[in-house]
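To assess whether ligand presence alters the predicted conformation, the chain was also submitted together with PMV. Input:
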Amino acid sequence: MSKTATVSAPGKIILTGEHFVVHGAYSLVAAIDKRVTVTIREVRGSSRISSGNVVSAITANDGKFAAVKVVLRKILEKKHEENLEVMISSAFPAGSGLGSSAATCVAVAAAARKFLGLNSDPRSIFELAMEGERQVHGNPSGVDVEASLQGGLLLFNKKTGAKSVPLERSLQMIVAYSGKARNTKQLITKVSMKKRNFPYFFESLSNASSFLTLGVLESITSGDLPRLGAFLNLSQTMLNWLGVSNITLERMIDVAMKEDVFGAKLTGAGGGGSVIILPKPETAESVLKALSKKCAYAFLTSIPQQGLSWEQ
Ligand code: PMV
């Protein structure tokens, strides 16, 4: 058993197919250059989890770090007496639609396996992280966890799993966080109600979303950015109909569109969280400037990015 283990895992943006992916459609997801870093070390006293000023005993049922505790309890079983501290540090906010809970669960699962001297089998880490995600989301598709684990650009479907898409050139996207955290579980339930009320229409929209995802994939690999932007805008219209967009996100998209971009949409569960924007190379600066006045924070990320990484 090593005395300390540090790993990091990236957040993600969903390019297309969020929500529909829960119901079996295809989704395209990419890791971003904002990461969650987890260190596990031996300490005196009882085992605990810490992130900034927030600390909680692994055995405490205080509502703090709920998903992380599920992962740790599963892997540590009766080894709580190991006297360890799990330190979490994230470069992006929780609840921002950028996959912070999945990145944290992946990093904690990987760090714990390393700490205990177990192998770094990606499927074991995936299963552990999914246990944590189920605690938070209820019915996650697994798209966030795969993006954090594998990195890069992935074509994902619940049945077929994740397929890595090689990219010849990197893609620049702007990510803007509204500052409004939201609850993915509630939004997934809201979409399920929509499906119940409009079953046939939902099914055709879900199929259309899969075709849209394939269109986005083809636009990225061929470097056709205007076409990619048009698909992102169409995806936003579909998400709007599902009821997961809101006035805050629409305003942010408006601000970006006025600066002359190829396209923009919400990313992740919606209801707050973040939007992604495909800028023209010459407008990226002005979009970032305009958005920084209207949102909590905005940054440029390039795709692809590395997935789970084992630090020294
Ligand atoms: O929680 P978020 O914002 O990362 O969204 C996850 C994407 C959903 O499709 C809404 C849920 C899922 O598990 O696929």
